[in-house]
Write a sequence for this structure.
């Protein structure tokens, strides 16, 4: 009778291990709304205006019929396309050592109010991070916070997906702005 | 002996519950080709042509050397870049109340026939939907249906992925066209 | 007593089957870093320079204030936007029969060195492949290999995700270049 009892106990233990194995495995997190990784960065955009070539990190490269490539267009810059290579910093100081570059393009896409759309990458190549994070999404920049998608990643950010929350941290006229980016990854590999 | 029997029965029940838990969990759907959510929308594009500023929802912002920014270029518009902020409606009527905005860009990218490539977002901010859906993909617009990718989402569409089928529902000269978009999400969170 | 023993044995077998079912199922591969599919392609870009319209597969459609649409701009082409419809081949020969088209855009996005950013699709419509693969990512083209993201797919490549490694296989002046693309899918459906 004893050995039977022992077998039953064995089964019970095996059960709990199995349940743990089934539900505590990485698969558990697949549809979790708890981020598997979080990061905060700032990036700094200085638009070329015909006079600041040395400091400029971005340039107007597309414009509507009523615009040009040195001044953002009337009608809330509707139709302007800007290409950028902006320094990424860990704090909100433009002069902090950059930890990477934000590279890609944004467009202004509405006549009536300021709103933009972004497609870009964070590119890292330092001892702390190597690899890239790719983003795309609408940026209705009059809102305090705006969510865009993390659509992929490489290197340290291999195959990641998630959501990045953008906040305009500062802007000076139409030449400089600084974005805070709170990245939440929900798929990590 | 009885209690032993009862334990065995208990085990059996636990087994079936465990099996159910393992295989009927959300994870089961991860590689399913049955959509977890489906939606149909229309969006309406009115290209600025130098005379329709008030009604225009899009503008030519890039052109090849042989083009300009008020008329779509020769050679199947190859090289034209268009930025848009188009109303989204639930039916095929331009004058129906918009439920959101389609914002982003498309390009014409072939000399020999009409074909385009799109990157844009659906932006919703109403009582029925809040959030955004991000799309990218090739749009060989002479085909009756074309599939592009849902590459991410935010808000109500948090972390979604899927496939959207585009159909040209109507077009009038080179100023207006209407697309029907059948969205099928295969990853819902 | 015998039947009890048999039940126990039955349980043991069921256990192992269950464990197998739980861990050897397709879900196991979800976070695997072993590709579920691999492909290698080449694509060929011939930029329009004012004289090669017939052979050109791409055109400059955006430029900074100091540039134009027939010659890539000074300062490492910073600000140039190029739209392309490039033939895809299975080997490195421009004259091999194309198996599809690479369609989308790239931008040059840095003043100090050559670096670009890409968003495009591979479009297939042959007996061997039907469907599309969508890509986005930074392309620091002075590096021997660069990783970008596979952000989605349709048709034969339904819902795929992965990483594509780009290598500059050849370039001739500023008119022709050929990229080798090693695609590794980590999500297959």
């Amino acid at each position: 009778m004893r050995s039977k009892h022992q077998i039953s106990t064995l089964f019970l233990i095996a059960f709990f291990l199995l349940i743990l194995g089934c539900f505590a495995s990485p698969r558990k997190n697949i549809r979790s709304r708890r981020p598997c990784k979080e990061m905060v960065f700032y990036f700094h955009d200085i638009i070329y205006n015909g006079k600041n070539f040395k400091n400029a990190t971005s340039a107007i490269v597309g414009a509507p019929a009523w615009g040009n490539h040195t001044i953002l267009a009337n009608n809330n810059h509707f139709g302007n396309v800007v290409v950028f290579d902006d320094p990424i910093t860990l704090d909100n100081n433009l002069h902090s050592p950059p930890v990477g570059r934000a590279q890609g393009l944004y467009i202004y896409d509405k006549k009536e109010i300021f709103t933009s759309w972004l497609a870009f990458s964070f590119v890292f190549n330092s001892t702390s991070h190597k690899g890239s994070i790719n983003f795309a999404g609408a940026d209705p920049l009059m809102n305090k916070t705006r969510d865009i998608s993390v659509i992929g990643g490489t290197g340290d950010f291999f195959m990641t997906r998630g959501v990045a929350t953008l906040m305009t941290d500062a802007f000076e006229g139409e030449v400089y702005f600084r974005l805070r980016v709170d990245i939440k990854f929900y798929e990590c590999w």
User: Anything to note?
Assistant: Chain A is about 10% helix and 45% strand.
